[in-house]
# Entry
Amino acid sequence: MASAAAPTTLSLLKIATSSSGTRARASLLPVPSSTLLRGTPLPRLGFAAADPIFAHHVASKVQSIKASKPSRGVVSMAKKSVGDLTASDLKGKKVFVRADLNVPLDDSQNITDDTRIRAAIPTVKHLIQNGAKVILSSHLGRPKGVTPKFSLAPLVPRLSELLGIQVVKADDCIGPEVEKLVASLPDGGVLLLENVRFYKEEEKNEPEFAKKLASLADLYVNDAFGTAHRAHASTEGVTKFLQPSVAGFLLQKELDYLVGAVSSPKRPFAAIVGGSKVSSKIGVIESLLEKCDILLLGGGMIFTFYKAQGLSVGSSLVEEDKLDLATKLLEKAKSRGVSLLLPADVVIADKFAPDANSKIVPASGIPDGWMGLDIGPESIKTFNEALDTTQTVIWNGPMGVFEFDKFAVGTEAIAKKLAELSGKGVTTIIGGGDSVAAVEKVGVAEKMSHISTGGGASLELLEGKELPGVLALDEAIPVPVSA
# Structure
């Protein structure tokens, strides 16, 4: 994250009232704090003392949100699930399961994080307990043709341990030898195919390759949310040859939370968006501005917003070609009545390094030669106060350079706050990527309502995009979600 300053120009929202009591048009003129409307004390949610009007505007908005009633939600992208299939549907059937087993391996081919393997287990267990023959497929890494270091062989011991049976491993994903292994597979057995991306036809979604994969099975289950945003042979192509084609438990849960909870959230609904660049989160921010009540921004992207407001950002990360966009997003938030909060203070450093000299400054006080790498304590306090008003929170992107312990305070504070809120019944959704790594690092992952397993897929869903791997599945009747 780059450095930040107190956004004084964000407070230039003058609200005049006519003699008749009607609200006049807002003007973008500097206004002294003495013109603040008087009345009931408001929660302190401003950016800085230099920004009293904007502080009042935000506090008013949040106070009004507190009084609103939670709405009921409906899952809006319901797909037929593996749970809808009966024992008679599965007994003795060959089921092609596309999972996302793309786990990190060290130089010795040891799994360093088995989260995705564990996430796939409920679907596979359900199938084998109902007597199905599971043909498990996945990719690993970005191989260029057959690449031994990207073989799925290192996954077999952990899969076998978690499933409680010996998983059989194929040396290919199509061909006569694979067909023989499928034919010898007992009811309740599991065959792990080799990396489907060893074939270039996988990512090209070539029909003949998809047909060869599909020929191994009787029906299809997609539980690979992390690749559902790609129209590949094993995620979209096979559905043209296998019926039924249904969602696995993990994929269904992702849809329930990321589509259901976000499209019809219990309110107030807050979104926290971080990360280094505005450009990578444009679609997410624009989409969330249509849905949320409060939007908190952090990470390196904030300096583009600050510079767009005329603030000095030192040597902080700035996307010069996105300055106009940042201004438009701020205007959109204002026009939609969304409380958009930028950090009031930041932790700045004299270089991008874990041992850099650092200090805390107001967002408007970043000196030349210094860069912002985290949000400051005042910002953490302000963000926490805003989050205390919420019923649903989704988080995507860190608040700073959390890989460096010295600049991980803001990100870790958000993780701990969401864990606290989750314990109070607030729906907390961690939308993939670095945010997942952050809650894992802090040790609060188990306390969150939902942690998404897909980085790019999560982002695209939050942007409101349709995922090819999901669209290809059989439809189901929408299921009401209790308030």
